[in-house]
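User: Hey, my collaborator sent me this sequence without any context and asked if I could get a structure. I don't really work with proteins. Can you help?
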Amino acid sequence: MLRFCALAIFLAGVSVGGYYRYKAEKAGEPISWNEEGVTVMVLLRVFGLVGWLAIIVYLSNPTWMRWSELPLPEFARWIGVVTGVISVPLLYWLFKSIGKNITQTVKTRKEHQLVTSGPYRWVRHPLYSVGTLLFLSLALMAANWFIALAALMGLVMLMIRLPKEEQNLIARFGDEYREYMNHTGRLIPKLRLNH
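Assistant: No problem. I've predicted the 3D structure and written it out in structure-token form, which is a compact way to encode the shape of the chain:
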């Protein structure tokens, strides 16, 4: 049952992301990955590919990933299911909000618009947050430390890339983006304490 849930959540996430990325690529000009730097570009794609392959291998035949199993209690694995079920509509919401502005690199499109609605109202990079949450939910469902490690290494590479991405956005939108940064969190909403 857990494997079926993981498969359904994985396919739903891939479908949502694939659909909106395809629409953005079809509507916009090709974007170069050169600005990321070779090391970040290669490592980010390697960790991403390893994570995707590990999930696909687990979904195809869990015994092939038994070498990296975790002895998780059943309830922890069901927490992964709940987290995954929550992640899919969040993915839809963020992709719907950013629309054709989505890119797979730090570079912006020529007609890029600053999106500050939907989840972007509170978080500047919700795709990184929700994508990591989805991968970690799949790691919990699979009870697999290797999938979790690949997700966390992908997040580390995204965090290394993030300053360059934000520099590009500041160069593009100037004070408008700086102001946006002041009242939003990078990956989670900013806490506002009232005095």
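In plain terms: The chain has one domain: 2-20+37-105+112-183. You can pass these tokens on to your collaborator as they are.
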